[in-house]
Amino acid sequence: MAIISPSVLACDFANLQSEVELINASNADWFHIDIMDGVFVPNISFGFPVMKAIAKHATKPLDVHLMIVNPDNYIKACKDAGAEWVTVHYETCPHLHRTIQAIKAEGMKAGVALNPHTPVSLLEDVINDLDLVLIMSVNPGFGGQSFIENAIEKVAKLKRLINDKGASTLIEVDGGVNNLTGKKLLLAGADALVAGSYVFKSEDPTATIDVLKAL
């Protein structure tokens, strides 16, 4: 059964506590938290004070996605703000192995995200060190974008790499995920689905989470 990680970026910030409680009460597994700096991606989301506020009420793990340059500078802040999973972008980490080890040293699970143009083969030498790989199926920065179909083949390639290396890495996908794309991604080998607009813009977010969970 798929891990469902609703993206808090798409929720109603004016009612953040009630949105967090909605996810707590649902069949979702994680909270997906996007931290953006306006440098690596052309948008700014929220920072650690908001993340701490979410963590205060959340009863499920925080799945934190750092879309920022120099992520090493914020690993400890992630831990202090309640993160359980921290994912950094391959494209921002010149010393990726060191970054992964720094995340693990803080007692968190380490993930690496790949932009749509970044091939999975680049993770060959670190796949056994990773708890998670996040495949971006849209260009990062904004919610509500159209799904990039090539992500399905990318998930399949990544699954082959994980199996070939005997790794236990989870595959997560973020961007344009709904009941149709989610099904294809799971068939290709994905373990976790991030959904923002599809959940929070629906008439009944709890029921929408159930639809994804049942795929």
Automatic annotation (TrEMBL):
It holds the Pfam family Ribul_P_3_epim. The active site is at D34 (proton acceptor), D174 (proton donor). It catalyses: D-ribulose 5-phosphate = D-xylulose 5-phosphate. CDD domains: RPE. The keyword RNA-binding does not apply. PROSITE patterns: RIBUL_P_3_EPIMER_1, RIBUL_P_3_EPIMER_2. GO terms for molecular function: D-ribulose-phosphate 3-epimerase activity; metal ion binding. It comes from the Bacteria. The keyword DNA-binding does not apply. Keywords: Carbohydrate metabolism, Cobalt, Isomerase, Manganese, Metal-binding, Zinc. Its EC number is 5.1.3.1. Binds 1 divalent metal cation per subunit. A divalent metal cation binds at H32, D34, H65, D174. SUPFAM superfamilies: Ribulose-phoshate binding barrel. Substrate binds at S7, H65, G141, F142, G143, G144, D174, G175, G176, G196, S197. Belongs to the ribulose-phosphate 3-epimerase family. Catalyzes the reversible epimerization of D-ribulose 5-phosphate to D-xylulose 5-phosphate. This is Ribulose-phosphate 3-epimerase. It comes from Putridiphycobacter roseus.
